[in-house]
Amino acid sequence: MSDREDLLNEAKRLTTGDRMDTYGPPVENHEHIATIASAITGRHISAQDVAIVLIATKLARRQHSPLHADSYVDLMAYAGILFEIEANAAMEDVSDDETTTGDNSDSTDPLNRHRIRDVG
User: Fold this and answer.
1) Domain range enclosing 15
2) pTM, to two decimals
């Protein structure tokens, strides 16, 4: 197995196992962090913002220690969490559109931007 595969597997293990057991589901955790950060700053901070700041933190730390594997594992994990947050938000947008229009056909979104499809 390559180093890349090892790092990806570790990111998966942490976000679906150890850390999820300790901190709860990652998306819910990021939403909770966003709520706290919003209260502290008095500005709206989203779960997406939280994931992006955590990615930025790991990128900044990588500048000092470019071969520290944990930084790459966490980058991969945060990128996956960000994708999950975005996917959930897109699905909520589609659901809201369908509820508002009463139409669940693709005609409610002619560009089909908010749909996640299996292309495989």
Assistant:
1) 3-102
2) 0.75
- Phi, psi (5° rounding) for residue 57? -60, -45
Question: Do 89 and 49 contact (CB within 8 A), yes or no?
Answer: no
Angle at 112 between CA 91 and CA 88, to 5 degrees: 15
When divided into structural domains, the chain yields a total of 1
Is 57 within a domain?
yes
Burial-class residue 111 by CB neighbours within 10 Å (0-12, 13-18, 19+). Answer: exposed
pLDDT, tens only, 75-119: 999 999 999 999 999 988 877 766 665 655 544 444 344 444 444
Is 79 a member of any domain?
yes
> Residue 10: inside a domain, yes or no?
yes
Within a domain: residue 80? yes
Q: How far is CA 7 from CA 27, 47, 62, in A?
A: 21, 24, 15
pLDDT tens per residue across span 8-64: 999 999 889 878 889 999 999 999 999 999 999 999 999 999 999 999 999 999 999
